[in-house]
Amino acid sequence: MHVNRFIISIATLYLCFTQTVNAKEFVFDSPGVRQNAPEFMVKDSGRTFFLSEYKGKVVLLNFWSLECKPCIDEMDSLDILSRRFYNQGLRVIAISSDSRKKLKRYIKKHDYHFVIMYDENMKIRRLYEVKGLPTTYIIGRDGKFIARIIGSRDWGSDQIINYFSKRLKMIGY
Prior knowledge:
Layout: H1 2-23, E1 41-44, E2 47-50, E3 58-64, H2 69-85, E4 90-96, H3 100-109, E5 115-118, H4 123-127, E6 135-139, E7 145-150, H5 158-167
Parallel strand pairs: 3-4, 4-5
Antiparallel strand pairs: 1-2, 3-6, 6-7
């Protein structure tokens, strides 16, 4: 009897684990009715940025932290995606609430081809209701949400490159 319970417990854990792994595959959580992405403003390095400056572009908005290993792990692949699709209108913006000093040190060490912004007091993170890191939003050329992706991804994978190759050609995407 105990052996059967043990086997059932192991099988249940296995199914939970494999479901979790499968859930990490490239799946978008798209709202049924697309809503406008909330406007935000960031003052950084003497310049003021507004999300609305990117209207007409597809924006991949990534919330991350230096304290989050999965966040750091996906930064190089975000760079690959940004470099690959910049001329097709994709803009990658990474938003962090880490201290400015730590963030500047990190940025100096890396030559990323995307914008990294400082989110003072997590204002933008709260505005976008980010509960965990990394969380990524894709915002269409029209300024409306296309997708929310929770958890890290390999943004340079063939699957994601193919996804953006097709979608960036679509009008309105």
